[in-house]
Structure formats: C-alpha cells, structure tokens
From TrEMBL:
<dbReference type="InterPro" id="IPR000182">
    <property type="entry name" value="GNAT_dom"/>
</dbReference>
<protein>
    <recommendedName>
        <fullName>N-acetyltransferase domain-containing protein</fullName>
    </recommendedName>
</protein>
<dbReference type="Pfam" id="PF00583">
    <property type="entry name" value="Acetyltransf_1"/>
</dbReference>
<feature type="domain" description="N-acetyltransferase">
    <location>
        <begin position="4"/>
        <end position="157"/>
    </location>
</feature>
<dbReference type="GO" id="GO:0016747">
    <property type="term" value="F:acyltransferase activity, transferring groups other than amino-acyl groups"/>
</dbReference>
<dbReference type="InterPro" id="IPR016181">
    <property type="entry name" value="Acyl_CoA_acyltransferase"/>
</dbReference>
Length: 157
C-alpha cells in the first residue's frame, strides 16, 4: 500500500483534488470538493489538504481551525478550543485501500499540533451507510449533540 500524505492545497495543485468524487450513494454525506474549496475562501479558519497515496490524488480534507484566529472563533471554540473536521472524503475508486484510515490519523496528528485545541470535532449525516463506525474506530465518540441534522462526534486530543 502506498504511503498517504496530506498536501496543503495551493493555486498550483488544487485541480486534481477538486475533481475527485465519492460514490453516487455517498453524495448526500459530503459536499463536492469544489464547493468546499469555494467556501474556504470565505472562511479564514478553513485549512484544506489534498490526500495523496504516493503521488496519486485520492481524497480531500478541510479542517475548521480557529487556532489561526481565536478572536473571531465561534462560542463553542471559546468554551472548549477545538479543531473541526469540516470535510473528509476518499474518492470512490480509492476506497477500501486503507487510505482513509491513514489520512484520518494524519489529520488527528495535525490537530494535536494546534494548541490550544483540546478536542477534535466532526459531524455526520445519520443515514444508512454513514461513516460513524469508521470514525469510532479512530477514537471518536458520539456526544449526543446535533449540528443541524448531523450527529456530533469528538476526540480528546
């Protein structure tokens, strides 16, 4: 299996990652990468990564990182500093190869470097086929809270 890495996205390298798509039955779980990239330009707390296996683009992640500008953070951050996993996807033709597991561990390791963040938060759509089990295998636990229609999970850093 190829080694997975997180690639900070720039204007020079974003295109192959923007084109990646999940399987049709997963489309309700995550926004298109192009939508996420557009949103990131209006949210200074957004940090985008391409996920590569060797040299091959296989996925995309976007974190909500208020440690970059704590004065403008939301109330949740002010109570308990966090890094949020805003978007995470592995392209349909690269799923089942262990790339997602490697990538989520790299994202967790990155979050641990973002002092004063104490937890990593994420939310997921609670439909059949959701990624709850995947996140639970990596230490995330459900909080019982909802973010709109999505269930919240947290991981202590």
């Amino acid at each position: 299996m190829a080694t997975v890495s997180l690639i900070p996205l720039t204007r020079e390298n974003y295109r192959p990652f923007m084109r990646l798509k999940v399987a049709p039955e997963q489309e309700t779980f995550v926004a298109l990468n192009s939508v996420s990239m557009a949103q990131a330009h209006f949210h200074p707390e957004a940090t985008m990564f391409g996920i590569a296996a060797g040299e091959e683009p296989v996925g995309f992640a976007m974190l909500e990182d208020h440690t970059k500008d704590p004065a403008n953070a939301d109330d949740t951050y002010k109570v308990e500093p966090y890094v949020g996993l805003w978007r995470f996807m592995i392209a349909a033709d690269h799923q089942g190869k262990g790339y997602g597991a490697q990538a989520i561990e790299l994202l967790i390791a990155y979050a641990r470097t973002r002092a004063p963040a104490k937890v990593m938060l994420l939310s997921f759509v609670p439909e059949n086929g959701n990624p709850r089990g995947f996140y639970a295998r990596h230490g995330f636990v459900e909080t019982g809270e909802m973010a709109g229609e999505e269930r919240v999970m947290r991981l202590a850093l």
